[in-house]
Amino acid sequence: MEEQELPYVLIDTIGGTHGVYEDHVEFLKKHFTLITMKEFLENKNHLSEKIKAIYMWWHKPAANQELLRSLPNLKMIATSGAGMDHLDLKLISSFGVKVANTPFAVSSATADLGMVLMLASARRLVEGCQIAVSPNTEHFAADWLGDEVTGATLGIIGMGTIGYMVAKRAKAFEMKILYHNRNQRKEEEERAVGAIYCKKIEDLLQQSDFVMLVVNLTPQTDKLFGKKELELMKPSATLINISRGPVVDQDALVEALQNGVIKAAALDVTYPEPLPRHHPLLKLKNIIITPHIGSATTSSRRLMMQNMVESILAALNGFPIPNEVIP
Amino acid sequence: MEQGELPVLLVNEVGGVRGVLKAHVEFLKKHFHLITMKEFLKNKKHWSKKVQAIYLWWHKPIIDRELLESLPDLKVIANSGVGMDHLDLKLISSFGVKMANAPHAVSSSTADTGMALLLASARRLVEVSPDTECFADDLLGDEVTGATLGIIGMGSIGYKIALRAKAFEMKILTEEEERAVGAIYCTKIEDLLQQSDFVMLVVSLTPQTHKLIGKRELELMKPTATLINISRGPVVDQDAPVEALQTGVIKAAALDVTYPEPLPRDHPLLKLKNILITPHLGIKTDKTTRMITEEAVANILAALNGLPIPNEVFP
């Protein structure tokens, strides 16, 4: 097939910090004619009507009114990852454009990361590594201890695909699992992971040694977790956030960690990302912050890319779209 | 019961860097009259015939012929933890002294440590830079879910690791048959090494396992694989991983144990980028250290009362 016959797909850029991965390009070029934003802007007249889909990698290119207006034949926007909070779904829909994400490609890697953060925080892994290599270390102190994960209580807030995978993993550590969700899961599902439903979030917070946030960011979950929730947690408990930064009231968290309202926190997500370098969260000793690496494995990112290609091809060929997001 | 009637227990020291944990002293004093090596040496004549038991904490006090000869009424030495490689079991036995370790207390906590190291290494947790201005997408790690874990050593700790790894849908290879966790049995260590994405060492240190992993074994591993050691430093020939990690023979290593501990500050392992070293975290939780002392006390009391010792170790 000649190059010109492959459907035109708009991307932000190739390579660099947030661009499409260079080692994904070969696969993408099998199916699409890739046009970067630079190429598009340089040749808008020619390319405007040709672009049928946007391959949105790490939220770029942004699907704003201006861009949507300039792409009259746009049919589909495929976005990487599970989160949809960066898209104005109503606006996009008003242009007759469909949207798809990649919720399943990210789930196991994100669940794994939730477990890493919990284990690393409890067992003081990051601190331990620093001690092991510090030029000042002469011996390893016998009274330098962490918290036991086996047998502890994990409270999962948000029991979707990722939350459930976390529960499966935590069960193998003989953890007691409590969960809070919009809806209770089926009994067989609960029994399979030994999870106990807490209709009231207060019950979960008061009993948990580890609280893990695994919700989507929606208007309902924005600042879901604030001063009140932190104060309900045990002072010996740890908060883990692998959902979205704005789910947590960050100022309240700073205060809670400074005053020992809770013991520690581990965040893969903040707002903004990255935090400004002078932010108080970065100065705390009882916190682990990772740079949004929830889905950051070679194989998960590859799978995401493949899912996005499938969604775009389905949309362009008039087939049912895998992972379609309805506004 | 008066303090004087309790059996005398010798420990190396209380508190400080290697001493018995201060938090455990109250519990120990319920059952024993506690003396430290310092007190013992100050008044050897008085204490010599009174000491009936020794509680080792982080391998101290050192049990040598001289100490054994000076304690004619010593009945039992209780080790904290499971490893006994620091003790001359034959020598101790020749003095008619019984020995015990604490195998049950350590298993969950050590298994958790193994998993923590595996996950932290795979997901590059410790590489976060404080100078981050934007998040580079080159911080990609390796997928743990669905990867292959080769477990060398299938005692209580190895078994608990297998249970945890199974929940991550890992394919598990072992050298010992263990159908209960759906592990695949490798008759030869070579098969395990060649197929694993992660190799975890969970053996006791014995003459047979000393330098079990050396240049040859590392070369058999995949160049994309990670070696994790939560057993004892000397199970690995320590020069071998230095070279292997520098030249990409294996991808990374995560070591909770080395020899010595800590490593000398100029050791080449400390300079490598693709290594995670932790300060022998294996059992370092409040709960587990407590359980270890409780297990040790049960062993000591059984020995002193002429009852079967729950975790007796024979030479």
Give an account of the 3D structure.
- Chain A: Keywords: Oxidoreductase.
- Chain A: Pfam families: 2-Hacid_dh (PF00389), 2-Hacid_dh_C (PF02826).
- Chain A: Belongs to the D-isomer specific 2-hydroxyacid dehydrogenase family.
- Chain A: GO terms for molecular function: glyoxylate reductase (NADPH) activity; hydroxypyruvate reductase [NAD(P)H] activity; NAD binding.
- Chain A: This is Glyoxylate reductase/hydroxypyruvate reductase.
- The complex is a heterodimer of chains A (about 325) and B (about 325).
- By secondary structure, chain A is of the alpha/beta class.
- Chain A has 13 helices and 12 strands.
- Chain A has helices at about 20-30, 35-40, 45, 65-70, 90-95, 105-120, 125-135, 160-170, 185-195, 200-205, 225-230, 250-260, 300-315; strands spanning about 10, 35, 50-55, 75-80, 100, 155, 175-180, 195, 210-215, 240, 265, 285-290.
- In chain A, strands 8-7-6-9-10-11-12 form a 7-stranded parallel beta sheet, with helices on both faces. In chain A, strands 2-1-3-4-5 form a 5-stranded parallel beta sheet.
- In chain A, β7 (about 175-180), α9 and β8 form a beta-alpha-beta unit.
- In chain A, α1 packs parallel to α13 and α6 crosses α8.
- Chain A starts with 7 loop residues before the first strand and ends in an 11-residue tail after the last helix.
- The relative contact order of chain A is 0.13.
- The model of chain A has no long low-confidence stretch (mean pLDDT about 95).
- Chain B has about 325 residues and is an alpha/beta fold.
- Chain B contains 11 helices and 12 strands.
- Chain B has helices spanning about 20-30, 35-40, 45, 65-70, 90-95, 105-120, 155-165, 190-195, 215-220, 240-245, 285-305; strands spanning about 10, 35, 50-55, 75-80, 100, 150, 170-175, 185, 200, 225-230, 250-255, 275.
- In chain B, the strands form 2 sheets. Chain B has a 7-stranded parallel beta sheet with strand order 8-7-6-9-10-11-12, sandwiched between helices. In chain B, strands 2-1-3-4-5 form a 5-stranded parallel beta sheet.
- In chain B, β10 (about 225-230), α10 (about 240-245) and β11 form a beta-alpha-beta unit.
- In chain B, α6 (about 105-120) packs across α7 (about 155-165) and α6 runs antiparallel to α11.
- The longest helix of chain B is centred in the middle third of the chain and has 20 residues, at about 105-120.
- In chain B, about 45% of the residues are buried.
- The model of chain B has no long low-confidence stretch (mean pLDDT about 95).
- The chains are: A alpha/beta (about 325), B alpha/beta (about 325).
